[in-house]
Amino acid sequence: MPHHDRRRNVAIQKYFNEGYSYKNILRLLQRLGIVISMRKLKRILFSLGLARRKPNCSLAHVCDTLMTEIQGSGSLLGYRCMHQKLRVIHNIQISRNNVMNLQKAIDPIGVAERRARKLKRRRYITPGPNYLWHLDGYDKLKRYGICIHGCIDGYSRKLIWLEAASTNNCPAVVAGFFLNQVKSLKGTALNVRADRGTENSNIAGIQRLFRSNDNDFQAIEKSFRFGRSTSNQVNS
């Protein structure tokens, strides 16, 4: 198969698995400089064994995957998001209605709670104090010249710091909050977690430097974790 055909087929399979309609797949292909007809697209999809309504795995496999997802982060997903995740992450071709019916059968309590908007938060477990610090900023008062930045210990929920300043986007300012507490407590946490904002770049480097001589499996690079602020415990 010529290289340009392989490139085209990889793109088609990617867009198909991401749930795009046939018309949108054609538009996306045009952006890549690939122009084909709808008829040609359908022939390629058929040759790749891709079909919208044709299941590509057994019902038992779908149920096992659903149960695994429901026991983890998927417990918060409705059938639309779960359908998308099954397609994109697990490459499972299944209709939305079937996902909805399977969720009702496998997780009736979760479905009822989502319908009533009573979602259960996932359990948060950490081994002990100063194992993991969570830090984040709060910008809702920024237009009044007040920027808030805070940090808590994940185990005890002890407030490590809560500071107000004219900015919480400056790496030097935020790093100052961190260093003041490290000096006061005479040590740092095993791990620190924050989002990927530029204001956290200095803290990441300092934390990894502090842990550079340690030998545990979470030392150096792993001692600072980046993650979404919406999942941070400081927002609890």
In short:
It is built from 9 helices and 5 strands; from the N terminus they run αααααααβββαβαβ. With about 240 residues, it is of the alpha/beta class.
H-E order: HHHHHHHEEEHEHE
* Helical coverage, percent range: 40-55%
User: Measured on Cα atoms, how large is the radius of gyration?
Assistant: 24 Å
Low-confidence stretches: none
Distance between the termini: 54 Å
The 3D shape can be described as elongated
Indicate how many domains the architecture comprises.
3
pLDDT averaged residue by residue? 86
Number of helices: 9
Residues in β-strands, percent: 5-15%
Major beta sheet summary: 5 strands, mixed
Strand order of the largest sheet: 3-2-1-4-5
User: Which structural category do the helix and sheet elements fall into?
Assistant: alpha/beta
Domain Integrase core: 124-216
InterPro entries: Integrase_dom_put
Pfam family, one: rva_4
Protein name: Integrase core domain-containing protein
How would you portray this structure in words?
This protein has 236 residues and is of the alpha/beta class. It has 9 helices and 5 strands. A 5-stranded mixed beta sheet has the order 3-2-1-4-5, covered by helices on one side. β4, α9 and β5 form a beta-alpha-beta unit.
Fold blueprint:
Elements lengths: L2 H15 L4 H10 L6 H10 L11 H12 L8 H10 L7 H11 L1 H8 L16 E7 L8 E7 L5 E7 L5 H15 L5 E4 L6 H10 L13 E3 L10
Parallel strand pairs: 1-4, 4-5
Antiparallel strand pairs: 1-2, 2-3
